[in-house]
Fold each of these.
Amino acid sequence: MQNLRVAAAQFQHAPGDKAANLATVRRFVEQAAANDIQIIAFPECCISGYWHLRNLSREELEELAEPVSEGPASQALMEMSRQYGMTVGAGLVEKDAAGRLYNSYVVAMPDGRFARHRKLHVFVSEYLTPGHEYTVFDTPHGCRVGVLICYDNNLIENARITALQGAEVLLAPHQTGGCASGSPHAMSRIDVGLWENRRQNPEPLAAEFHGDKGRGWLMRWLPSRAHDNGLFLVFANGVGRDDNEVRTGNAMVLDPYGRVLAESTALEDDLVFADLDASLRDRSTGARWIRARRPELYSPLTQPTGREQDTRAVRFEYGGK
């Protein structure tokens, strides 16, 4: 891996307005280019919008969806990537040649290549198909990158397999914080009135963003994905009202020790960036632990327990809609 500079964006998308959201992406890419960024990560479904998807019919989802690579959003990302020599990742709803719909993340690289990750653990709509592959690829910037979308990062197996496939940098696009949860001591909803009143009275919203409904919850587990697997981690997230919920931003970059290199405390759209020192990886705790693995002991991980459920059933088992 070579040293590089990466950025993580947080922004409030316009539900269903792909043109407006791509314009926001472009503004951030231009800002990143002025700061010599080589890789920039945008949030999950930031091009299509996210939480409103749960209310759309299949026909409405199909109208919003588009193919990856040849679709207009992918082409717009590629045009930005080539113009600025920057790898650009952003999320949308994908429709494949067979008509299947996915929560996908498109990564456009300045050498003309695309990478695509289809979310493994989808739940926002019954019409979305879960992905079945991990996504790890080489970039023109001298590093190997993996992608896991939101809930994908919650399962430790996904981060470990991504690392075992050679990822050095993990892009972790989310729409999280402020979500209704079935776990009583995890994140929970934020009053949308706090967001609407943030200009006049920012302190209560800041307390929610930085407390257990946002950053506090993230910091219980997100750094371990980086630390335990010897990965740099680029966390991009939505911010602000997303239908009847409020996303908490907290865009950040973590090093392979799980330390925060840069993070946003803004109650609005924001961009953070950090320089990644490649020399940290080889002797990081996680990288050393991986070398001590005993795969012959791990076959139980591949055996069903009989307790597995569909992600939607787990996500909404306590009515958290």
Amino acid sequence: MQSPEISNKPTRETSRIESFSDGVFAIAITLLILDLHVPEFKPDETLMENLAREWASILALLIGFFTILICWINHHYMFQKIVRSDSGLLLLNGFKLLVVTMTPFATALLSKHIQTDWKQEAVSVYCFNFALMGIAMTSIWLYARRKGYMIHIPDQEMKATTWLYIFAGFYATMLLIVSMFSIVVCLILFAIMFLIFISPKDTVYLLMNKNVPIKS
């Protein structure tokens, strides 16, 4: 006879989604380093001076790395709750992975043009990519919730998590709008968003303690 612990455990239909997604995340985050190049030796300057000139590429690498990392952390968190899927969820997840695969290009564009007259447009292109990522994240969570594809979650936790991922889409879109006017403010907002989403579990518990008023 099957033990109660095994029989009560929800059947996961999302294991292949998670495995495939992890592979895409791993490839995308690895591709970011390709935009950095080992400096050539020059007798009239030190290695540190040469590397200092690459600050834009290094900054872009860090932004791109943490963007994909935060995306992966939240994807992992969501699919701890989502245990069933259908073609609609597969397509939404595929859209998110498409945006993830575009991130190395957006990062390279940012690295190449952050010191040129195209810097505003380069930042906006990156923020557009980021906005799509936020919208994809919101869509996956809301779709899975509407379809009832999740494990049982306490009502207050469900409300807080839903609020968090609705906020993700709005905040990422706001970043795109801000990027058209101020790069500095945009970078500050990026940093704030990373702090909010670096640990979604902790953020959800914080929202639960604050009794976030969101309707089911």
